[in-house]
What we know:
By secondary structure, this protein is of the alpha/beta class. Helices cover 28% and strands 29% of the residues. It has two domains: 2-120 and 272-302, Quinone Oxidoreductase, Chain A, domain 1 (Alpha-Beta Complex); 123-248, 3-Layer(aba) Sandwich (Rossmann fold), CATH 3.40.50.720. The radius of gyration is 19 Å and the shape is globular. One of its GO terms (molecular function) is oxidoreductase activity.
Amino acid sequence: MKAIRIHAFGGPEVLSIDQVPSPQPLDDExxxxxxxxxxxxxxxxxxxxxxxxxxxxxxxxxxxxxxxxCGTRAHTLKKGDPxxxxxxxxxxxxxxxxxxxxxxxxxxxxxxxxVEAAAVPLAGITAWQGLFDxxxxxxxxxxxxxxxxxxxxxxxxxxxxxxxxxxATTVSAEDVVFVRELGADQTVDYKNQRFEEVVDAVDxxxxxxxxxxxxxxxxxxxxxxxxxxxxxQPSQEKANLRRAxxxxxxxxxxxAHLAEIxxxxxxxxxxPFVQATYPLGEVAKAEERLENEHVRGKIVLEVSA
Length: 305
Ligand SMILES: NC(=O)c1ccc[n+]([C@@H]2O[C@H](COP(=O)([O-])OP(=O)(O)OC[C@H]3O[C@@H](n4cnc5c(N)ncnc54)[C@H](OP(=O)(O)O)[C@@H]3O)[C@@H](O)[C@H]2O)c1
């Protein structure tokens, strides 16, 4: 089968389309025929060597596809069942087939195509775990989401609204209408406005940007509030000064979280936005675009029909 692998760290030119043996499932695992795989910042960060990995490595953490082979204990699934999954970092979904574990996959929502479904797992699970597990967001609370128009942010806005929160978000001017349509109650054009001057105190800051944006976020946090970052550990000293909590975390595959997100998708409360698709062989273009251009929502690779 074809798999996109890297044999050295570097720019998009290190991405190589390799012929590799098709994988086999163990026990309750299945082999998924990958229909679509989405691109996340972790893909280009891994390719560039920012994440420790043993080479060669197949990139891609998000897949949607159909069951091809069931392991001997995968009794609840059969060939052809549609699944979507966030893969553990020991495998890559930029390939024609991939092993998926029972702890990583959920039924693909009927409402979504494979391309749309592949946009959801990593970004959706990151949003879920950041808002609810680490952020403790509850109905009636106020959350500020930095980077609301990106892959994680556009799903986080919808998940927070579905949970009954007030959502403020920082975006570029061109994304204001987009995030309003997703349900954001207040938008801040981050290139022209300072969010700390216009957003009233919030219970939770969900930081998808880091740096100066994270530093300034303490000013909008209620005493006792929480700053959750996907990127860097918030200052413990500043957290203590505000009697607040600062958390950074790494999202982990979680079938139960993905199934919950799938139910919200089926109920029409959450819808992923796919800005562009590329064939698997053009993964280099897809990664370059995500890293260097303005992207709204997600970019997805079409792997097979
Ligand atoms: N810890 C984890 O497990 C985990 C999981 C997923 C993602 N992440 C990390 O979280 C970050 C976000 O992921 P993603 O998939 O959502 O990335 P993405 O799709 O590239 O989106 C990033 C968004 O941030 C916006 N942005 C950039 N600078 C900003 C600023 N100063 N203020 C407000 N918004 C700003 C961008 O908008 P413009 O284009 O308009 O600038 C873009 O919409 C990435 O760095 C990723 O590596 C970590």
